[in-house]
């Protein structure tokens, strides 16, 4: 399939291949992985220039997420060394050069179940002015698609009670309980 040639998948969503190798995505998967693309609204891997397109501000709509451009570049380059572990997808409104959505698939390598891969869905957020347009749903579909390509046997996530219905609409079911322990900050090694 040529770059940007579209093909339909379930629910009539349109996805396009993306062979831009500047993004946070393994080169080996670049030419075969397809992304939702609807006019100016484009899904793609996170790129190093996305800090300037409002990536930090978008994450601040999810939680405390203020970081400088140099912190962003340092973390981006760390992730780039572990391309099999991190699949950070963003949605850009090309008409505004603005990042309006993001979501991450983190792939955990396990010993159990025949050294299986477990996918963790993390840091899903859609800009408040773009909510209710199925972009969150499409982001989860995109991550499910990548998780399937990578070979994850399941996808799991933690969320607030008020987002349970959203994830149920995305096909997830409630299981067990979420627990957390926050550790005291330590000086950097
Ligand atoms: C693992 C994690 O990262 S959990 C963190 C989740 N992120 C946040 O809480 C950040 C703030 N919230 C957001 O960014 C967004 O509201 C999201 C990501 C939760 C949803 O994104 P949206 O683009 O608005 O959702 P989308 O339009 O795709 O909704 C799909 C369906 O779910 C429904 N839905 C969306 N959010 C909710 C909700 N909180 N409660 C109930 N239903 C919901 C929609 O009504 C829609 O239903 P429909 O198909 O019957 O019309």
Automatic annotation (TrEMBL):
<keyword id="KW-0256">Endoplasmic reticulum</keyword>
<dbReference type="GO" id="GO:0004343">
    <property type="term" value="F:glucosamine 6-phosphate N-acetyltransferase activity"/>
</dbReference>
<dbReference type="GO" id="GO:0006048">
    <property type="term" value="P:UDP-N-acetylglucosamine biosynthetic process"/>
</dbReference>
<keyword id="KW-0808">Transferase</keyword>
<dbReference type="InterPro" id="IPR016181">
    <property type="entry name" value="Acyl_CoA_acyltransferase"/>
</dbReference>
<dbReference type="InterPro" id="IPR000182">
    <property type="entry name" value="GNAT_dom"/>
</dbReference>
<dbReference type="GO" id="GO:0005789">
    <property type="term" value="C:endoplasmic reticulum membrane"/>
</dbReference>
<comment type="similarity">
    <text>Belongs to the acetyltransferase family. GNA1 subfamily.</text>
</comment>
<feature type="domain" description="N-acetyltransferase">
    <location>
        <begin position="41"/>
        <end position="189"/>
    </location>
</feature>
<comment type="pathway">
    <text>Nucleotide-sugar biosynthesis; UDP-N-acetyl-alpha-D-glucosamine biosynthesis; N-acetyl-alpha-D-glucosamine 1-phosphate from alpha-D-glucosamine 6-phosphate (route I): step 1/2.</text>
</comment>
<protein>
    <recommendedName>
        <fullName>Glucosamine 6-phosphate N-acetyltransferase</fullName>
        <ecNumber>2.3.1.4</ecNumber>
    </recommendedName>
</protein>
<keyword id="KW-0472">Membrane</keyword>
<dbReference type="Pfam" id="PF00583">
    <property type="entry name" value="Acetyltransf_1"/>
</dbReference>
<dbReference type="InterPro" id="IPR039143">
    <property type="entry name" value="GNPNAT1-like"/>
</dbReference>
<comment type="subunit">
    <text>Homodimer.</text>
</comment>
<keyword id="KW-0012">Acyltransferase</keyword>
């Amino acid at each position: 399939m040529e770059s940007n040639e579209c093909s339909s998948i379930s629910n009539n969503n349109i996805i396009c291949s993306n062979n831009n190798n500047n993004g946070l995505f393994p080169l080996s998967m670049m030419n075969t992985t397809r992304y939702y693309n609807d006019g100016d609204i484009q899904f793609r891997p996170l790129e190093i220039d996305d800090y300037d397109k409002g990536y930090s501000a978008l994450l601040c709509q999810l939680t405390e997420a203020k970081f400088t451009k140099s912190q962003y570049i340092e973390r981006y380059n760390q992730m780039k060394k572990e391309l099999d572990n991190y699949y950070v997808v963003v949605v850009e409104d090309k008409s505004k050069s603005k990042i309006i959505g993001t979501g991450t698939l983190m792939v955990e390598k396990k010993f159990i179940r025949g050294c299986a891969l477990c996918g963790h869905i993390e840091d899903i957020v859609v800009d408040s002015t773009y909510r209710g347009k199925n972009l969150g749903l499409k982001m989860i579909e995109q991550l499910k698609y990548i998780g399937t390509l990578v070979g994850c046997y399941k996808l799991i996530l933690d969320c607030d009670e008020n987002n349970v219905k959203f994830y149920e609409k995305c096909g997830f079911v409630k299981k067990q309980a979420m627990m957390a322990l926050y550790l005291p900050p330590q000086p950097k090694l």
